[in-house]
Write a structure and sequence with these properties.
By secondary structure, the protein is an alpha/beta fold. The protein has two domains: about 100 residues, Rossmann fold, CATH 3.40.50.720; about 60 residues. It is built from eight helices and seven strands. A five-stranded parallel beta sheet has the order 3-2-1-4-5, sandwiched between helices. It is elongated, with a radius of gyration of 22 Å. The model has no long low-confidence stretch (mean pLDDT about 95). The structure holds ligand SHN and 1,4-dihydronicotinamide adenine dinucleotide. Ligand SHN binds next to α1 and α4. 1,4-dihydronicotinamide adenine dinucleotide (NAI) binds next to α1 and β2.
Length: about 210
Amino acid sequence: MIPLLHDFSGSRVLVFGGGPVGARKARRFAREAEVVVVSPSFADADFGDATRKRAAPDPAEVPDWIDRIEPALVVAATDDSEVNAAVEDAARERGLLVNRADHSGERAPGSVVLPAMARSDPVVVGVSTQGHAPAVSAVLRDEIDAQLDGAGELATFVGALRDRLDERDIDSRDRRDVLAAVAASESIRTRLAEGETDRAHDGVEKLLRKTKA
Ligand SMILES: C[C@@]1(CC(=O)O)c2cc3[nH]c(cc4nc(cc5[nH]c(cc(n2)[C@H]1CCC(=O)O)[C@@](C)(CC(=O)O)[C@@H]5CCC(=O)O)C(CC(=O)O)=C4CCC(=O)O)c(CCC(=O)O)c3CC(=O)O
Ligand SMILES: NC(=O)C1=CN([C@@H]2O[C@H](COP(=O)(O)OP(=O)(O)OC[C@H]3O[C@@H](n4cnc5c(N)ncnc54)[C@H](O)[C@@H]3O)[C@@H](O)[C@H]2O)C=CC1
């Protein structure tokens, strides 16, 4: 399996199953997609901004739900494996992305796994065991999360620096060297994490003088 980032803004996601797992998936996707959760009952959990529809479709009724909602991705998170299988089949027939929450290990071709995630926007890290051991993904995610201090600020800062360098007369090799040096600079990252943006800019100027840019 290959990790990809997919932008779901403007898309719909349909979740079958309103238990804790359906809620977790709904919350995740509701950050940017319009999410609908179909279930006969809903756990006392945070579903983000998802719309809840109370219904218990049997396997034969699943395709109709998908055709009505027109999602880009479908999640099968019920506790009924026949319903989950019908969700997977109907999604696949329609060429939609499908995440099946009740399967691990060997995956059907074309299936989607949700990784454990650590974020320091705009930096995002996903960890997966390709379905084999989700608890391991969660532990590794916690370890990575502890290392992300200042990562988001650094990415935002270096992104803006790229634009500023485009306005300077700097050759492309020097540009790359400066960006790599700033990205790797512990002191600039620490200053940014502490909100000392001016001092981070001083650090950049020092590096630029070294490359005579
Ligand atoms: C294949 C996958 C499908 C998918 O994409 O959903 C899947 C499948 C299954 N999970 C099961 C169990 C658990 N899942 C978790 C936790 C998480 N599971 C997540 C993802 C995935 N789980 C995908 C693979 C990810 C990868 O590649 O590593 C995370 C990372 C992301 C998320 O779900 O958002 C999230 C961490 C969230 C976070 O902390 O952020 C815990 C730990 C806990 O709850 O504390 C347990 C109990 C311990 C255990 O059993 O290992 C079971 C058995 C159910 C049963 O037997 O009842 C199945 C089905 C099966 O094994 O058949
Ligand atoms: N991916 C993951 O991280 C995990 C996956 N699982 C798997 O995911 C499944 C769901 O986990 P939980 O939320 O903990 O289970 P749960 O049993 O608490 O919730 C299942 C939900 O599905 C609903 N449901 C039942 N029939 C339905 C139908 N025909 N249509 C729509 N909804 C229906 C139920 O009303 C309930 O709200 C489990 O059966 C298990 O196989 C379990 C733990 C973690």
